[in-house]
Amino acid sequence: MDKYHNEKEEIESVEIDEINEVEETDKTSSKRRKFFTIKKVAVFAGSVFLLLLIGYTTLLYGGKMFVDEKKLFVSSPTTIETEDGEVIWYLYDEYRLPVELEEIPEHVQNAFLAIEDKRFYEHSGVDMRSIGRALYRDIITRSKAEGGSTITQQLAKNLFLTNDKSWYRKVKEGMISLYLEREYTKDEIFEMYLNVIYFGQGRYGIEAAANKYFNKSVQDLNLEEGALLAGMVKGPNGYSPIDHPDKAKNRRDVVLQTMADLQLITVEEAEEAKAKGVNLQITERKTNPAYEAYVDLVIQEVEEEYGLTLEDLKATQYRIRTGINKEAQNIAFEEFQQDTYFPGNSMKNVEGAFLMMEGETGQIAAAIGGRNFKSSQHNRAVARVGQPGSTMKPLAVYGPALETGDYTPFSMLEDEMKEWEGKPVRNANEVYNGEVSLYDALVQSKNTSAVWLLDQIGIDYGKSYLEKMGIEFKDKNLRIALGGLENGITLKEMVQGYRTFTNSGRSIEAHAVIDIHDLYGNEMLTENHDETEVFSEQVAWNMLEIMKAVVTNGTAQSGYYPNELAGKTGSTQHPKHEGQTKDAWFVGMTPEYVTALWMGYDDISEEGNYLFGGSSYPTVMTKTILTKLNEQQSLEATFTKPEKVDALEEPIQLPVITDLKGSHTFGGFKLMKGKLTWAKQEDDRIIYRIYEQKNDKVQKIGEVIGKNEFTIDKFSLFDGSSYYVVPYDTLTDREGEKSNSVKITF
């Protein structure tokens, strides 16, 4: 028993010890659980705090991620202007005319504040009251119907966000607003807002809207006008005073009443303004179609020389001064609308282009890119058009030939129909004189002489002068003399080339842009338009004088222009229609301008696409443009010869003498003398050579200069002699046709 009790006591003792150990273990576990619970709560709380801190920091400072600072600086449209600063064209994506807040009347500012954000100067960019109201209405309507946006938020949305009604967009809007409020003053934000808000009809900003709807500046807006514009912000199209005048008036009156409720105006002022109707003075800012080709040319030039694309010009304000002559541009545009200048087998497809360059500066004064040119179309004023035809002769042949020193204007050239490079070369009128002076070959546009002369001076030599003028092409054959270029030529190249003849032999790159200034008034750098010497002054003047004769006596006589004009016609043979014209040209020169006018078809592959009338039509049209311009601007009447240059003599026109008469006289040391007489000529430079023919023997017995009679001292009535006269040209060293023969008898 004792043993049993002892064992039982031992067992109970062990159980008690185990129970104590379990109790101790439970206490320890409980403490551990409590520790871990507190730790979890702390971690959770810390995480939440950290997330809130990150969220708050992101909300407060993260707005910068969505802001493009450049968009905050609102600029006016890029302007293309005349040299004197008159705007002819605007380039923009969104039409704005930014103004400073000080220029906007207080009653106009108050109208916007009253209806859009009455607590603007009190909140920090996000108005919690408005957000609470918006949230309540969103819940009630189960939609995102109410915006609750402040002016700052509207600015953020207009500049940096889309119009979707998502909470994510609202969060970004708030972030941007907080950033803007931190970085800019309230006045700066309000000014930016008033300059970017949309007012319908393509107008952004309060100044552009005032111009559009009331034909006045914002500083001249009265109370009801300012209230009407403020009311449009909520829905520029729905509250348009043009499309919905009643809605616009009702909305305006709401603005006026709100201003009165906020004591920004008196009740009497509000009622007086509400009693007035909506009086609009709508202005339409229409573009002039006459300027489209010129503007297109300017845009191309700006990108090529300044590296500014059209997108750049629309995004940021630039002032581009150009050399446009508005009167010349408008006159040329109107003439290009006349169908009578464009005769062709398919008249609707006949095209044309015109370029006028100021000779001294190289500035392009006018440009027509086609008969019905629209922006971004094929601008023929600068693109390659047809083959230049005979307008290439002065540039590639006659000018370079005179520059060699081996030829003068009165050197004799070959004039015979023959094959060159396997193809026959003919004159347009099929008249061949055997030989002709360089002067007459150019005036009469002899094809045979031009090809012969280019062969004499060398193709490479002729092309080297073209390259100095900025005219380059791959062709390398004698057809260059006739303008048979495979890929045609540009009008710009033509005026550059012909400019050498009016400006002492120097070429300059034709350009439209005078200068460009950026938003801050800084002039942008570009390449200088330096002159390149091509011909000597003497050669240039001689060529100019010859081409004056082309207009007065040669192929460019068609039409009328009262002042001195020089130039060259050109035409090319249609490859599919014998005797019909493919391209027709006239390149003209006045003391002030160089012009190039082309007519033809863009596509000659179509059956029937050929011209009638040849180069007479571009010649007449050019003279008409110049005549009308002269009536408006009094162009210089005559060319001025450079001081160091010798005048070019007029060519001598040898007469055909058919009225030679013979007689005899008595008296003097010798009792009998013979006398020859013929009609008097105006040109006293002509030498008349007198020939005696006796028994098949001919001898020269004398000559006279500028006279119309000759006395034969050694004379006999009985020797059977006959006499004739041959005129002689001292310039070309050539005799003319012999006169009729006479015998002197009783």
Automatic annotation (TrEMBL):
<keyword id="KW-0808">Transferase</keyword>
<keyword id="KW-0645">Protease</keyword>
<dbReference type="InterPro" id="IPR012338">
    <property type="entry name" value="Beta-lactam/transpept-like"/>
</dbReference>
<feature type="domain" description="Penicillin-binding protein transpeptidase">
    <location>
        <begin position="352"/>
        <end position="608"/>
    </location>
</feature>
<dbReference type="GO" id="GO:0008658">
    <property type="term" value="F:penicillin binding"/>
</dbReference>
<keyword id="KW-0378">Hydrolase</keyword>
<dbReference type="Pfam" id="PF00912">
    <property type="entry name" value="Transgly"/>
</dbReference>
<dbReference type="GO" id="GO:0030288">
    <property type="term" value="C:outer membrane-bounded periplasmic space"/>
</dbReference>
<dbReference type="GO" id="GO:0071555">
    <property type="term" value="P:cell wall organization"/>
</dbReference>
<keyword id="KW-0961">Cell wall biogenesis/degradation</keyword>
<dbReference type="InterPro" id="IPR001460">
    <property type="entry name" value="PCN-bd_Tpept"/>
</dbReference>
<dbReference type="GO" id="GO:0009252">
    <property type="term" value="P:peptidoglycan biosynthetic process"/>
</dbReference>
<keyword id="KW-0133">Cell shape</keyword>
<keyword id="KW-0573">Peptidoglycan synthesis</keyword>
<protein>
    <submittedName>
        <fullName>PBP1A family penicillin-binding protein</fullName>
    </submittedName>
</protein>
<dbReference type="InterPro" id="IPR001264">
    <property type="entry name" value="Glyco_trans_51"/>
</dbReference>
<dbReference type="InterPro" id="IPR036950">
    <property type="entry name" value="PBP_transglycosylase"/>
</dbReference>
<keyword id="KW-0328">Glycosyltransferase</keyword>
<keyword id="KW-0472">Membrane</keyword>
<comment type="similarity">
    <text>In the N-terminal section; belongs to the glycosyltransferase 51 family.</text>
</comment>
<keyword id="KW-0511">Multifunctional enzyme</keyword>
<feature type="domain" description="Glycosyl transferase family 51">
    <location>
        <begin position="90"/>
        <end position="259"/>
    </location>
</feature>
<keyword id="KW-1003">Cell membrane</keyword>
<dbReference type="InterPro" id="IPR023346">
    <property type="entry name" value="Lysozyme-like_dom_sf"/>
</dbReference>
<dbReference type="GO" id="GO:0008360">
    <property type="term" value="P:regulation of cell shape"/>
</dbReference>
<keyword id="KW-0812">Transmembrane</keyword>
<comment type="similarity">
    <text>In the C-terminal section; belongs to the transpeptidase family.</text>
</comment>
<dbReference type="GO" id="GO:0008955">
    <property type="term" value="F:peptidoglycan glycosyltransferase activity"/>
</dbReference>
<keyword id="KW-1133">Transmembrane helix</keyword>
<dbReference type="InterPro" id="IPR050396">
    <property type="entry name" value="Glycosyltr_51/Transpeptidase"/>
</dbReference>
<dbReference type="Pfam" id="PF00905">
    <property type="entry name" value="Transpeptidase"/>
</dbReference>
<dbReference type="GO" id="GO:0006508">
    <property type="term" value="P:proteolysis"/>
</dbReference>
<feature type="transmembrane region" description="Helical">
    <location>
        <begin position="41"/>
        <end position="62"/>
    </location>
</feature>
<keyword id="KW-0121">Carboxypeptidase</keyword>
<dbReference type="GO" id="GO:0009002">
    <property type="term" value="F:serine-type D-Ala-D-Ala carboxypeptidase activity"/>
</dbReference>
